[in-house]
Amino acid sequence: MTTDILAPARHVIGTPYTDSVKPYILALTGLHIAVGPKDFSTRDLRSDRIFISVDESNFITDLNIA
């Protein structure tokens, strides 16, 4: 059985992105790093980092651990 670590934060999908959503997602998931749509990040695989994807209207479309 696997656990969806992002489940507690999935309700933010479809809401407008602001920088304040990053600490909120981290608090809900217990992970350590959140990368927003305009943040720079390395492409190495990390299990403690959440990528926040947004659409052209700046609404959150997806959350991924990578």
Which second-level CATH architecture applies? Answer: 2-Layer Sandwich
Shape: globular
Number of contiguous helices: 1
| Mean pLDDT across residues | 94
Number of strands: 3
Summarize the main sheet: 3 strands, mixed
**Overall structural domain count:** 1
CATH hierarchy, class:
Alpha Beta
> What quaternary form is this?
single chain
Report helical residue fraction: 10-25%
Distance between the termini: 20 Å
Beta-strand proportion: 15-25%
Q: Find the CATH topology.
A: Trypsin Inhibitor V, Chain A
**Secondary-structure element pattern, one letter each:** HEEE
Task: Name the descriptors.
66 residues, alpha+beta, Trypsin Inhibitor V, Chain A, three-stranded mixed β-sheet, 3 strands, 14% helix
Structure description:
This protein has 66 residues and is α+β, with helices and mostly antiparallel strands. It has a single domain, classed as Trypsin Inhibitor V, Chain A, CATH 3.30.10.10. Helices cover 14% and strands 23% of the residues. It is built from one helix and three strands. It has one helix at 21-29; strands spanning 33-35, 49-54, 60-65. It has a three-stranded mixed sheet with strand order 1-2-3, covered by helices on one side. A hairpin with a 5-residue loop joins β2 (49-54) and β3. The protein starts with 20 loop residues before the first helix and ends with a strand. The model has no long low-confidence stretch (mean pLDDT 94).
